[in-house]
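Office hours follow-up: a student asked to see two folded examples consecutively, so here they are.
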Amino acid sequence: MKTNEELILLTINGADRPGVTSALTEILAQNNAIILDIGQADIHNNLTLGILFQSDASTSGDILKEVLFRSYELGVNVRFKPIAEKEYSEWVNMQGRNRYIVTILSRKLTAKQIAGVSRIIAEQGMNIDAIKRLTGRIPLEESERTPKASVEFSVRGTPRDKELMKASFLKLSSELQVDISFQEDSMYRRMRRLICFDMDSTLIETEVIDELAMRAGVGDEVKAITESAMRGEIDFRTSFTRRCAMLKGLDVSVMQDIAEHLPITEGADRLMRILKKVGFKIAILSGGFTYFGNYLKQKFGIDYVYANELEVENGKLTGRYVGEIVDGKRKAELLRLIAQVENVDIRQTVAVGDGANDLPMISLAGLGIAFHAKPKVKATAEQSISTIGLDGILYFLGYKDSYLQENIYKY
C-alpha cells in the first residue's frame, strides 16, 4: 500500500430504511474510494452495515465528515476505525482457511441450542463469519408457531479434532433435541443434483414387509426380524429371505390396499415438490418391494425405483423373490450407477436412509443423511435428522424458505 493511502472500516447501525447503503456508498464513490470488503445484515428491521475502504489520505478526512453528517440525517449511528496494513494482510491470509457450514434444525430454536453449537465451534478454534435464519419468521403465539426452525452458521478454520467435534455435536443433539449438520462449504454443496432415498421408515412411516406380514398373520415374528436387521444385528440378505418365506400364500390383492394407505412421512410432499422444481433427479433404492416403490414413483414423479420383486403364482405370494436382493452393498452400487448415467459427480449426490443397510450409500454420497435412524446408523453417518420431517433436508442443502417462494409460514 502506498504511504499516502489509508484503510478505514466504517460500521453503521440503526433502523433500516431504503437508501441508507446507497447514500453512504455514494460519498465513497465521489471520493474515488476502493471497497475492500463490505457486509450487511438486517435483524428485525435493524441494519448493521460494515464497509472497509481504501482512500487517499488527503481525502479520507472529508469522507469521514461527509459520512458522519449524512448518517445523522439518515438517523443511523456510524463508527470509524483505521486499519493497519499488517492487520489487513492477516485478515486476507485468514480468507484462505477452510470454510464450513453448520446447520441446526429443531422444532423450536432456543438460546441453549445456539450457545451450545457456538461453544463447540469456539472450542475447536474456529471462527463464525456469519449466521442466517433459513426458516420463516416465527409468530409469538405458541398455537401459531411454525413446526420447524433452522439457522445456518458460516464457519472458518480447521477443527482441532474433527471426531471430537462430531461427538460433541451428537451429544448436544441428544440433550437439546436439535439436529446439527457440519459440512465443508465447497462448490459441490451448492450443486447437488441427485438424491437417493430408502423407502421404508424413510419416505413412508412403516415397513411394508411388516404390513404384509400382519395381513398374513405373522406380524410379530416378521417385525422382530425386521427391527433386528435394521439395527445391523443380523445380515440383511438372510433376514430378507426368512421374512419373504413367511408371506407364502398371501393374496396379492392386499398389496394395492396397503399401497393406497401408505403413511407418507412428514415433509415428504413438500420436499419432493421442491426437489423436482429445482431440477433434482430422485431415486428410491429400497430393500422393500418394487410394487410400493412404483406407487410412490407415480405419486411424486420419482425418476428411478430399485427394490425387490415378490414372486406371484395364481394370485398369491410364493414366499420367494425374483432377481437380485437390493441390500446395502447393492444400494451403494446403484447410487454410483445412477450418478454415472446422469453425469453427476458423486460429490453432488445425496443419500437418505434409516437402517444399517443404508449405511453404504450414506457413506458414499456427497451428503449422507441418517433420517430418524437407528442409534448405530446415526452414530456412523456424518449427518442426521431426528427432530423434524423430511423437508429438513432442504436446510441441509442450504435452501432458505424465502427463496422457495412458498407461503407456508405466517409472517
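And the second, which I mentioned at the end of office hours:
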Amino acid sequence: MPEEKSTLELSPLSMGGPGPLYRQIVEAIRREVASGRMPAGSSMPSFRALAAQLAVSLITVKRAYEELERDGIILRHQGLGTFVAPGGALRSRTERCNVALEALRSAIRAGREAGLEDRELLEILQRELADSPRPVKSHDGGQR
C-alpha cells in the first residue's frame, strides 16, 4: 500500500457540537476522504497524535477509528499504521450522498406540508444553490 504522509487537518471539536466527539471525528474524516483531500493509501495520524491535535482522549479517537474501519473507510495494519482504504472515498461519498438525499426528502415533505407547490420548491432550491458557496477544487481533483 503506497504510504503518503498524513495531511489530516481537522477543525477543532466542540462539546456543544452536533453529536458526541467521536462522531464529530468520524464525520470530519469522512469529509476529508470523500473530498479527495485524504486519498487512498494516505497515512492517518496515530491515536496519540490525533488525540493531542484535537485535545480529546485516546478512547475517543480509538472509537472513531474503529467505526471508520468497520465502515471500510480506513485500514489498520499492525506495526505499520492506519491508512485510508482503497474505495474509502467512494464509500464515504456514498454515505454523505445518502444523508443529503434524506435531508432533501425531509425538506420536500416540509415544503409540501407548508402548502408550497413543486415549482416554488424548485425555485427555493435553485436560489439556495446559487447563493451557496462551492468548495474550491484542489490541484489533484479533490475539493478544499
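Two things to take away from it. The chain is about 55% helix and 5% strand. The longest strand covers residues 74-77.
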